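Exercise 4. Each item below gives a protein and its sequence. For each, produce the structure-token representation.

Item: LysR family transcriptional regulator (Aerococcus urinae).
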Amino acid sequence: MKMSSINLQHLYYFIVAARHQNYSLAAEKLFITTSTLSRAIQGLEETTGVPLFINNKGRVRLTDYGTVFYRYAYQSIRTIEEGIFDLQSMADIRHDTIHISCDSLFSIANNMIPSLLAYCQKADSNLKINFEQLPTSQMIKDLLDEKLDVVFASDFGFDNYNTQIETELLFEERLALAVPDAHPLAKKDQVTLQETVDLTFIRTSDNENFKKLITNLQLASISKKTYPIHTIHRVVDDNTLMAMVRNNIGVALVSENTIAGTVGVKILPIVDLPIKRPIYMIKKKENLPSYSVDVFTQYVRQFIAEEYK
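Answer:
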């Protein structure tokens, strides 16, 4: 077999088909017809001399040969992309842009993202990143529609998307209680779960952790009774949350490192709260990211290792 007989475009078609396990869906993503994709795969099978896919009523899966070939095909495409990436960096003509987003959590939007962008700019001034903060629901929709490459969020209910997204835990943060300065608990330096049982909470969009908090508050009772958790007003960003707390509308669960908008608010560690809030990097599972996205995600891991571990 001569290398000249391998069509790089067909190699890319093969990778996309393998990731989607469906010729029709892969062809749609590639903006080609299903017959064009089938002919490309058939050509690769003729070139390699082995079957690469097993076709079963529209669904396809890799053969053992196909699984091995996928590894080499993917690495080949990545190597070429890396070469183009380096050449364009040398010539300062890089055109691709990485699109990222995050939810409104203080620890992500106010703490992590600005520092991460500065870190990436220092590491590679040619890396083009477009950041847009969005509501969680819109952010996930845009990720699935491939308008975004990478997003950052806490647990928004991953079970509903586990076949569509892949998540990578970056770090976990301790949670604390935010109370107005005039609140009786503000005289303390820390609180216990038992002391929070009768408080009225302002909810945030971080529903999964709020459910866990409720469970722990209920178990905190010495008498083992179940206490109702009083909640009012659901908000989606920490600035609104802090304004509500400052004006004595209620108390809130926040990151222990929250500093924005804390004038008139006391942040109290909850000493026996066993849960932490996880922060994730999220990508679309079946999407084939560009080499630039791979470079960016590697910078994210390096940044987290240096700043959060």
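Check: The mean pLDDT is 82.
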